[in-house]
Amino acid sequence: xxxxxxxxxxxxxxxxxxxxxxxxxxxxxxxxxxxxxxxxxxxxxxxxxxxxxxxxxxxxxxxxxxxxxxxxxxxxxxxxxxxxxxxxxxxxxxxxxxxxxxxxxxxxxxxxxxxxxxxxxxxxxxxxxxxxxxxxxxxxxxxxxxxxxxxxxxxxxxxxxxxxxxxxxxx
Amino acid sequence: xxxxxxxxxxxxxxxxxxxxxxxxxxxxxxxxxxxxxxxxxxxxxxxxxxxxxxxxxxxxxxxxxxxxxxxxxxxxxxxxxxxxxxxxxxxxxxxxxxxxxxxxxxxxxxxxxxxxxxxxxxxxxxxxxxxxxxxxxxxxxxxxxxxxxxxxxxxxxxxxxxxxxxxxxxxxxxxxxxxxxxxxxxxxxxxxxxxxxxxxxxxxxxxxxxxxxxxxxxxxxxxxxxxxxxxxxxxxxxxxxxx
Lengths: 171, 243
Known about the structure:
The complex is a heterodimer of chains A (171) and B (243).
Chain A: E1 8-12, E2 17-18, E3 24-30, H1 35-38, E4 51-59, E5 67-72, E6 87-92, H2 96-100, E7 111-116, H3 118-126, E8 134-145, E9 148-150, E10 162-170
Antiparallel strand pairs in A: 1-3, 1-10, 2-10, 3-8, 4-7, 4-10, 5-6, 5-8, 8-9
Chain B: H1 3-9, H2 14-25, H3 29-44, H4 66-77, H5 82-90, H6 97-130, H7 132-148, H8 150-158, H9 169-200, H10 205-216, H11 226-242
Helix pairs in contact in B: 3-4, 4-6, 5-6, 6-7, 6-9, 7-9, 7-11, 8-9, 9-10, 10-11
């Protein structure tokens, strides 16, 4: 049986990322020493090991949306919802205010999410859009309106939620 | 060599590879090793003022030096940093993992050593003003009451708080030290009374061992039991007075 090692962090964002009423974006720069392995699109690259995206310490007391779609490498100025194949998952804001406050049962760390990035990475490799040096992550708000859920860039009142850090791990 | 690359290359003999992987999976190993070494040192070299009569105001009821107290802090408190060490190590870039853990421990132990020196100074004043017996009774009562206090439960929850760490540069160094210091402050706020009881019983090894278990127990209980903690403090007091 192959002895597994924990996934290694290959890059992370600098500074907090707001989760607002409009899509927000952050760039994760891959560490130079990890780029060779991260370059899954290279000619001689083996089948990529698992890749994970971690959205850490989502905190705040007033969410601007009920959740956020998480996409990677959506072209600048494009509507992320037009790229469902680049969506890695969804963040719910349920419980974020409660876990942001420190009390008897909560440490005040907020909520942390992990997503499997492997399939989206394979798709980007096949379409020639994989960048071994950086990953662009977009958060698109999901709002509940009388006609149903709405996922677009229309302006809504901004809350105060933010993400502590976005990081990428590779096995 | 980074873990992913080494695993892919399969280099090294089986035993060495397994040991290396164990270290990668458990970055806290050297912290626990340091704590074990500190315990062995304290067993081999009791602090200069320890004596069976120390808690009763008899000979040897002084406070040990800063060096001994620092070793005692490593022994008693380092094992409680496991979750913080793992968070720092596994959330850092591979090239700075060891440095990140060292910075975290520096922040944490720095806070605790300063706190213990303050507690020792306060003990000196209290035993001088009230007499050793009354001061010991006060320390035990404070430990019992603090174990039952609702405010302590909030501090205990904060002991598991995580923060995002900058990935590189001086900000990464700053964040690791600051995270360690924040954890240290939460830990001091949770455990100051137990530490005061240790000081009151002149750092008797049996008393320290019991209070160490009292502090460690909540991390391994599904529902931390305040009754068990109070019993533990009382047991430590009985052992300390009988010693």
